[in-house]
Amino acid sequence: MNVGRAIEAQLRNELGPDANNIMKEVCEKINKTIDQLEDRDLFQVANWVSRIVAAKYEYETSVRLSKMVHRFKVERDLEKMPNLMDQGTLLRRTEKLVSLGNLCLAMKDLEAANKYFRDAVRNTSKIKHEVKESEALRGLASVAMNRSEWDVAVRNFQKSLQISRRINDAQGMAEAHAGLGYTYWKRGDFPNALLEYEKSLENVSKIRKKGFLATVFIEYGNVYNEKGDLEQCLDYYYKALDIFQELEDGAGLARVYNNIGDVYMQKGDWDNALKYFELCQDQGKSLNHLRMTGWSAFNKSEIYVQIGELEKALESVTLAEEQLIKARDDEGICITHRNYAMVYRKKGDFEKAEQHLEKGLEMAKEANRPFLEADTLMEYGRFYDAKGDKDKAKKTLERSLELFNSIDAKAYAEKVNKIIETL
Prior knowledge:
The protein is mainly alpha-helical. It is 85% helix and 0% strand.
């Protein structure tokens, strides 16, 4: 099977019969027939697949399929390489392995990503190429991070950091510190997360990558958000917003609009919160970005619960669930279950509320995310209180409080304490 037909077959697995039309459009853009496509055309093919699929389907699918075409190209390059053990060949093979690991990671093919990164690490021991070894170790750490294997992630990020420090690789240090910051944040170690993000920023300033800087600002802000330090958090979000506006980065803008809206929601400023959630939703729709339209929708549902518009809340959280299931966003789906429970608790439908709480709590534990677990338990406590079971409400809220205290989420712990005082 030639290159064009092979790509069409892979697209068909994802898109069904529409793959034929997609490939027809791609070939028109490149000015070749499908049977004339060669390996050297595949980067152009990936670019056009991304554009055409984004317009017809959604952002996440376009990214995944573009990466799929890139992966096909790099795997073919790797297969064609001579099976030699000289330094030059081993270096080129290692570069391909790291590229494949990153592509598979972006596609969420974690098993394949793990294999390619491990093979790359083995190769670097033969050629003593520390930059690639450090990069491959960050890849292994990112695979572990996606699996919620926090200890493995920390270990590999630290190994990568040691190498990057030794060779004075500012980009490697910036990425390793940011990876450690993200890992510590997700597992609820906020003090170490903040330290690592600070160190990442010190190195980002040396490499001048504005998109990466904006991402670090957002994630730095996210730690302060979960700690409950809303002013500090908002400061970092607005720094990210300035950069994303300068870069005209639509996906970045959608993300930061959503996060700013979340801060205003926590402040009880419903008008500004809705304003930013609408900006996120509009930006998400313009990109067909399922994740951002889903997150803005479940956040809007929480506001609607607070102001008593329960039908609007149910409509929003239902839309969020639909979008996030398509986007394969487990963390977002976990939060929709909590928001469903809020709606049904207010409606007095305790059976449905409890079903969603059980599912949300299960997902939070599977993700090994103490913050999500504590947040879900806080809603579970409110649920028991609404049912009139004060004892279960208190016990559940005390578990939530214990978790929030363990991760230094002081503002959230105060919220739980206030609920306990009313029992």
